[in-house]
Amino acid sequence: MASNEIVDPTSTADVSLRRKFLHVAVPIIGVLLILATIGGIGWHTYQATRTGVLKLTHQLLVSVQRYVVQDVTDYLGAATVGGVFARDFISHAPPAVTRNAFYAYGASMLRLVPQIQSYYLGDQNGGFLLVERDPTGKGLEYTELRNSASGNTFHHEFHDEKGAVIRVTDNPAANYDPRTRSWFAGAIKKDGVVWSSPTIYPTTKQLVITASTSLTGSDEVPRVFAVNVSLNLLSQFLDGLKISQTGNAIILDGSGHIIAGHNFSRVVARSGNDPAKMLIDPQTQPVFLRVYDQYRVRGVGSHPFRLDGKNYIGMAQTLPSTDNWVLLIVAPESDFASFARQSGRESLQFSAIIVVLAILLAGLLARQSRRTERVSHEFGRQKAQTDLEAAALQQVAVTPGLMDVTEEALVLTEELTRVTGARRASLWRMLHDGTALICDDNFDAKVEGHSGGFELSRKDMEEFFKLVDAGAIVTIDGAAADPRTVAFERFVMRDAGTRTVTVCPVRGTNQVGTGIVGVITLEDARFAPYLVYFLEIVAAITAVRFSNSTEMTDSQKDAAPDTSAAESLPEPRFDETLMQAPKVGGEIGQGLYPSVAVMVIAFSDPVMEDDQTGSKLLPLIDRIAGEVQDIARRYNLFSVKVAGHRLICMAGCTKDPDPTAIWRLAEAALSLRETCMLVLSTANIEPIFTIGMDFGPAMGGELGGNPKIFNLWGETVTLAELMAQGAPDVGTIEVTERVYQALRSRYLFRSRGSFYAPRSGTGRVYVLATRR
Q: What cellular component terms from Gene Ontology apply here (predicted)?
């Protein structure tokens, strides 16, 4: 036997034992040493923390006290600093605007400062103004004391959050005189802020305190400005203050009454809503009573004491800018020591957790299993997304008339929102000259509604058009902050409240050649890189559809609508007026007016069943005529005339161009539409009117003998009448392109296509929807 074949069994046993020792005993011993080291460090830390934490208790409470004092001072600053500011602000206001200045200041402060309940303003003559929160809503209530021979009354105006008047009421004042009130009498002859005793505010049932300051306006009338500050919010702050585990704080006034503090609701209930009875209860608040007694003897500062076998640390501090208010803080000394013990135990526990986690992290197999599970889940999600895209493309493929430009492509935007999770999806078609984008369809998934016809001008949003011209798919998270999409967000996205936008340019063939023919926009989409393929397919379909729209022949584009009905109408009469044309310097100008705005309201013939029908319609027609007169005066229209079943309204009949004429007429048109809708619906009559508008030069002047009749004629009047006759639906305001160009920055329009007018040719038609 060779020597190298001889085996020593003892040596084999030694190797096995050494391996076990290295693989098992050494790691266990190492873990035990780590545990012992961490435990020793934790015990030493606990002892050091326990010893030092009590030494820092006083400094901690001093810091908390300063923090609370500062917060209470800031809380009352609206009454102290704000009162000084209001005194200077109102005293320098002219007498004619003192009321508005007070209301403006009070409304702004009430919206910004939640702890303020209301503002008063009384004067030496007995005048009184009040602005306060509406107890039944989120708006404001304005109150004014009005004096009359029949007696004093309170005039109340209730406004919503946007400042609009909701309702107006009046009620007797019952000989109310602000000069007899404590907040007025206590401050009228004093300089600086005067605090009154806490009271229960009648409308909100909250405890408030009033700060008053005197002022003298520019009319030399002495006044008192007062603010009611709610103490309930101050109590909530003190009640939620974490001084220690069981430490609390309260605020007392100069006479020992509780202003705010821990369990304030119980204090109010115990006193029966009587502020004079809100005193420290020896049974439930003995620690605060002890601190308050020491404060009255020793003054402000730290006051340690022992009560019922427990050590307490109490502190007292007066509050600046108040009427001798004092802040009392009480905390058991054991809270801080227990904190040290708890901190030590938690340190040991955390150390043990760290060791256990270090051992568990060696289990790479479990980690690998989780990674495999995540990959499988990702594959499943991608498969579901692929199935969703396939179903969407199948739905698009089976939709009839998708490439027919005369049919609506609603399925494209609907499937885009479903696949990408977008809030809104829009198809925009580029005009052949590249100066504008027209919305072919816009689908809002939230309301499940389609819209379209909006126009975006390159002049108004040059950066957005540059982004489209770049030809790449881009997703912008904050559209309002990106200079490329800030204009798009303002004009398109802001009304819907969306934030992100994905821009996908559509490449195709137009009259110029191959290039950008449109763009797809997705708002608030869950867009991911794997959706690019689906979006490119939809963009290709859209490109074919848009390219078909550019292949329309010129004869199709210029096809004139049937105007035979309009040409067969009788000549309009202008011999009846609802409102005489205004005179300037005693004369009415005649000749060519460069910028006249004309609106024609066309009413359909009512159905006359018998004589009684006519007698019932006459009061309705008279009411509409009166409303038209009121609206004409409200917007300073030049003239309103009756011509058969048409109302003709004019503005801007001046020798010099009037840039506000078309705007005033547009506002009048919206008001007339709402008024006529309301009047007709009240009378249970279907709307039977349409409105047309145009803007441009016209001839005008007085005609005939005595009396002379003012008349206006020209292409502008003719086009306005054609717009009214060609409106698609009742109540629609149809306008020419000149009106659209003048008002598109202020109002929303939708495109109606083209129209043909004799001697004028082809033009664009728009429908005025509403204000922006």
A: plasma membrane
Picking from 438, 436, 405, the residue whose alpha carbon sits closest to that of residue 749 is: 438
Q: Which sequence spans correspond to the domains of the chain? A: 71-230, 389-552, 564-771
**How many other CB atoms are found less than 10 A from the CB of residue 147?**
13
Instruction: Give residue 580's pLDDT.
Output: 44
pLDDT of residue 3: 42
CA–CA separation, 765 and 760 (whole Å):
13
* Main-chain phi, psi angles of 520, to 5 degrees: -110, 130
Q: Cα dihedral angle (460, 462, 464, 465), rounded to 10 degrees?
A: 110
What span, in angstroms and rounded, lies between the C-alpha atoms of 658 and 743? Answer: 14
Is the sign of the CA dihedral 421, 423, 429, 430 positive or negative?
negative
> Which CATH superfamily includes the segment(s) 389-552?
GAF domain (3.30.450.40)
Q: Which fold has domain 564-771?
A: Alpha-Beta Plaits (3.30.70)
66, 73 in Cβ contact below 8 A?
Answer: no
**Nearest CA-CA partner of 558 in 715, 760, 767:** 760
Report the pLDDT value the prediction gives residue 58, as an integer from 0 to 100. Answer: 66
pLDDT of residue 327: 86
> Which residue ranges in the chain fall short of pLDDT 50?
1-7, 9-12, 551-588, 608-610
Contacts of 207 (CB under 8 A, 6+ apart): 198, 199, 200, 201, 230, 231, 232, 268, 275
As a CATH number, domain 71-230 is 3.30.450.20
> How much is the pLDDT for 691?
92
Asked if 307 contacts 282 with a C-beta cutoff of 8 angstroms, the reply is no
Q: Which residue has the tokens 């080291």?
A: 37
Which residue(s) pair with 703 in the sheet? 709
Q: What tokens were used for 162?
A: 């946007």
In this structure, are strands 733-736 and 689-703 parallel, antiparallel, or unpaired?
A: parallel
- The secondary structure element, H or E, covering residue 171 is strand 165-172
Q: How far apart are CA 70 and CA 307, in angstroms?
A: 30
Checking 298-301 for CB contacts under 8 A at 24+ apart, the result is 300/326
Do the domains 564-771 and 389-552 match in fold? Answer: no
